[in-house]
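U., I forgot to send this yesterday:
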Amino acid sequence: MGGASLDVSAMKIARLAVLGIALTAGIAAAFMINRSKAPPATVEVSAPQPAVETDDVLVAAHALDVGAAVGQADIRWQTWPKSDIADGMIRKSADPNAVDEISGSVSRGEFFAGEPMRHEKLVKGPNSGFLSAILPSGYRAVAINIDNSGGATAGGFILPNDRVDVIRTFRDDAATKATGADVYRSEIILTNIRILAIGPNVQEKNGEHVIQGTTATLEVDPRQAEQLILAQRVGQLSLALRSMADAGQTNTLTDDLDDTPVTIIRNGVASAASTR
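Result:
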């Protein structure tokens, strides 16, 4: 009997030892598994971007030409970042009634579709028209007569905004008297003058509208206007087209006249000659 009790006790101890070993092995395995797992990825949360401050800017709804009448359908508000709004742009926050105020103006320059409107490129008034809109302050618009065949306008290739020299051709009375033949001279009286407009001068004759030659309207200062009008009364004016590269140069008034005659006409026959 005593021997059987010892056997039972030994078996219990053995079972407990096995159970302890298994439990220890399980804990060790679990610990090893947890160590082998990669640490959880860190999720970086970016800070929210500050909202871009905007304002509405008045822009051209479509392309506008020089001298175009600007109506409400020609302009619109467009959202614009405040940091990119330059001086001179028309902002809705500063001028909410700008559409009504600008409507009826005349464009002094070209606008592309979406281009911001500017007050300095617009003019508005009861008598505002094309020429008065594009004419700079202090200047005058003077129209001169030129032939409609293009002989006095570089073959008809002179257009508005081109630069020209104004040439006067006149009869030299003193040389004519000295030589006994008609002597004509040519002189450049104005240089680098801007063309404002070229168009027909339509007049009424016998109840019908007819074209009596062509006119060219030039941009000149007051002194040049006097010279131009006087020159037209005592001679024939022609225009010589200049390069576009000369647009930035200052226009001048020629005081020294060319003494070289252009043509002598004897008995209806023209020939080149000089009185020197």
